[in-house]
Known about the structure:
Layout: E1 9-14, E2 21-22, E3 34-35, H1 36-46, E4 48-54, E5 64-72, H2 73-79, E6 82-84, E7 88-93, E8 104-108, H3 109-113, E9 123-128, E10 131-132, E11 142-144, E12 157-163, H4 171-174, E13 186-191, E14 195-197, E15 201-210, E16 217-224, E17 242-243, E18 245-246, E19 283-292, E20 297-306, E21 328-335
Parallel strand pairs: 1-12, 14-21
Antiparallel strand pairs: 1-3, 2-6, 4-5, 5-9, 7-8, 7-12, 9-10, 9-11, 13-15, 15-19, 16-17, 16-20, 18-19, 20-21
Amino acid sequence: MGLAPETWQLEVVPDPESNAEVERPLSKAAGTALDWAGLMKLAETKAVRFMFVMSCTNGKTPCGMGLWEGVPLRDVVWLAKPTGNIRRVFYYGYHNNDPKQRFQSSLPIGRVLEDPPGENPVILCYKLNNQWLTPKRGGPVRMIVPDGYGNKSVKWLQRIILTNNPQANDTYAEWNNDTVSHIKTCARFIHTPEKVKAGQAVPITGLAQVGMSGLSKVQYWLVPESEPLSEDDPYFTKAPWIDADILPPPEHWGGNLPEGKLPPIPRQFDAAGKPIRWPIPNTIVHWAALLRIEHAGKYDLYCRTIDANGTAQPMPRPFPKSGHNAIQKVQIVVEE
């Protein structure tokens, strides 16, 4: 099935339903498909590593963040020697013989061949946290699109089609989702107490997903449950929000990395292993605050982000089908 390094092969072929021009297709039938040895040969000089948050378009919380490693997709596309009439890249991974089981996605050829300033390349990924990708994580090779939601990063990658068709063919689009939406900036709670004593200082913690528009602040707002909310302010823009503390880069990154240390040298880090920017776009950061509530009762606690452009969550893109970023609410009971 091609789900192990010794049997994996990747085809890069022209779309038979368009007039795409490809001089040297990489195909199994011709015996020219890219195999594991060929990919590892490219990795000797082309490999890149970067942090990236894996997040589902409709998921309320990010799945997790990792250090992904792979070869830029453009370097493999050029092996097939495309020459013209190519506007989009279709791709999909292993599936059974039922066409309905195929999960596929697509990208404009421009995004594959060239990266926006400060952005990471689309990669054929074979490592996560410096370990070979397991089948559960999409191994031996998966796509990683570092500015998009998880539906773009197809697992068990085996076939790439170069086409002159300008239309996306994404499975997620068929399910009424926006498949070209970039990662959004939003905040989520990790730990909040269900019950506290009046006047007691308690910590609250959370994470923030750092999207295309960056992150400048994480804020929280505590309001008595009985207090009426403004009907003409659905995103609570006039509420008395309070700034939380965005935590600095960790000394120990976790992820089963030896001693929690990063291998040399991920793209968003300098030679000393320090982030060039913090927070890093398309990753997550942690935040914390100390909460003290003086009076007994039931309270609603909200959290939100302010992006690097000064825009408060869930704007500027509040639509759920382009990435979940609704303002989160939890309840706290304060006892005497």
